[in-house]
Each structure stands twice: as structure tokens, then as C-alpha cells.
């Protein structure tokens, strides 16, 4: 397996933004655009009426504060995988970013057209400890709207897909590690009552479609090439 080589960004200049070596940097523009849109739907809102998301499975899943750790690790997972591919595997960065752009854009469209919320958060925690106190504060900060499909799940799968197709991490061992991390993150969303299980199930078809288009279809190579 060919060892990935770091791209030397010391040579980067804005005039080189459209060159094959650095055109992928433009994909980073998606993040501020997405952040503004997400802040709008979360803080300003597109409606006063949200459809609650709930299925029977939610009622048998207990709250478990220990899932705080994989839930928060999502941020490290996402930023870490983006940073690694950005510096070491640019083709993988392009593919990961296109996976995110496609799936997140569709998710935002769904949030605009079909606003949802969840009403699963416990009124009283079953235990009093540092983790439940943290979740109480987290609930106060994080709204319970725009939940279906789950961006947390989609982002975790994006990292897993990038890892599975990485030249460095594409071994059986690393694929297993990435898969376990992704499963734990997905479980954390429902055990912390941040999402309904339906939000997870709704995210999976988007992930499968994004994975097929970016990594497996006859157009897949285009997503790894400079534009």
C-alpha cells in the first residue's frame, strides 16, 4: 500500500485556488454556508409548528449518560478525519467533502420542508452525577428541533466511509475501529435522548446514497479529481 504524502500548503497562494493541486480548498467554503443555514433553522426557525418524531422503539431505550463520551467524540471524529484527509489524502478529502455536501444539503432541505422535533428528553434524570448535570446544561443549549434525519449520524458515517477508503486506514483492523466508533456514536444519539430511533433510520438511506454516489458509482472517480 502506497504511503500517503502530506501536501505542502506552504506553497499555497490564493491565485493557485483554481489549480489542480489546491482546488479542493474551495470545498471548505461549504462549512460557513452550512453553519449559517443551520443557525437560521435552529435559532430563527422556519415555522412555529414542528412535527414530533417518535416510534415505539424509543420507549424501550433507556437514558444512559455514559453515552456522552461517544456523542462528544463525534466532533473529534469529524474534525480529525477532515484534517487528516485535507493534509494527507486530498483525494479522500474531496470524496468526504462531497459526501457531506450532498447528504447535509438534502438534510437541510428536509429541515426546511418538513420541520421536526423530538420530545424524548427526560424531565428528571434517573441519577445525579457529573454526566447528567452536563446533559442538563447541554439540553438547555441545544434545541430539540430539526432532528430527522440526524446530522450526527450522517457525519459519523461520512468519517467511517472516508476511513474505509483511506490508504492509511483501509486495513481490516482500522475499518473495524471506524465501524465500532460510528455505531457507538449512532447509539449515543438515542441513549442520550437527543434523537428518536427514527432519526437514525432516516439518516441511513441518505448515507447509503451518498456512499454509493461518491465511492462506488461510475461517477465516483469524479468526486476525487480536481475541479
Automatic annotation (TrEMBL):
Q: Which UniProt keywords apply?
A: Membrane, Transmembrane, Transmembrane helix
Fetch the InterPro entries from UniProt: PAP2/HPO (IPR000326), PAP2/HPO_sf (IPR036938)
Q: Name one GO cellular component term.
A: membrane
Q: Which residues cross the membrane?
A: 21-40, 60-84, 96-114, 173-192, 198-215
Q: Which residues form the Phosphatidic acid phosphatase type 2/haloperoxidase domain?
A: 108-221
Question: Does the UniProt entry include the keyword Transmembrane?
Answer: yes
Query: What is a single Pfam family found in this protein's UniProt entry?
Result: PAP2
Q: In its UniProt entry, what is this protein called?
A: Phosphatase PAP2 family protein
* Organism this protein belongs to: Candidatus Avoscillospira avicola
Its lineage opens with: Bacteria, Bacillati, Bacillota, Clostridia, Eubacteriales
Amino acid at each position: 500500500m502506497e504511503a500517503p504524502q502530506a501536501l505542502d500548503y506552504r506553497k499555497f497562494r490564493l491565485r493557485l485556488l483554481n489549480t489542480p493541486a489546491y482546488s479542493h480548498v474551495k470545498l471548505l467554503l461549504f462549512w460557513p454556508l452550512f453553519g449559517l443555514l443551520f443557525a437560521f433553522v435552529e435559532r430563527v426557525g422556519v415555522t412555529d409548528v414542528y412535527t414530533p418524531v417518535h416510534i415505539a422503539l424509543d420507549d424501550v431505550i433507556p437514558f444512559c449518560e455514559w453515552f456522552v463520551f461517544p456523542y462528544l467524540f463525534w466532533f473529534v471524529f469529524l474534525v480529525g478525519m477532515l484534517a487528516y484527509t485535507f493534509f494527507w489524502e486530498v483525494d479522500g478529502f474531496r470524496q468526504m467533502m462531497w459526501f457531506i455536501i450532498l447528504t447535509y444539503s438534502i438534510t437541510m432541505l428536509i429541515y426546511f420542508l418538513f420541520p421536526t422535533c423530538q420530545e424524548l428528553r427526560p424531565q428528571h434524570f434517573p441519577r445525579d452525577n457529573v454526566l447528567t448535570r452536563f446533559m442538563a446544561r447541554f439540553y438547555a443549549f441545544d434545541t430539540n428541533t430539526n432532528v430527522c434525519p440526524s446530522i450526527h449520524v450522517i457525519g459519523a458515517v461520512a468519517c467511517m466511509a472516508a476511513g474505509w477508503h483511506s490508504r492509511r486506514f483501509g486495513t481490516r483492523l482500522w475499518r473495524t475501529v471506524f465501524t465500532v466508533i460510528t455505531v457507538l456514536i449512532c447509539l449515543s444519539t438515542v441513549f442520550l435522548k437527543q434523537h428518536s430511533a427514527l432519526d437514525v433510520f432516516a439518516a441511513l438511506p441518505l448515507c447509503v446514497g451518498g456512499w454509493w454516489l461518491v465511492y462506488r458509482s461510475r461517477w465516483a472517480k469524479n468526486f476525487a479529481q480536481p475541479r
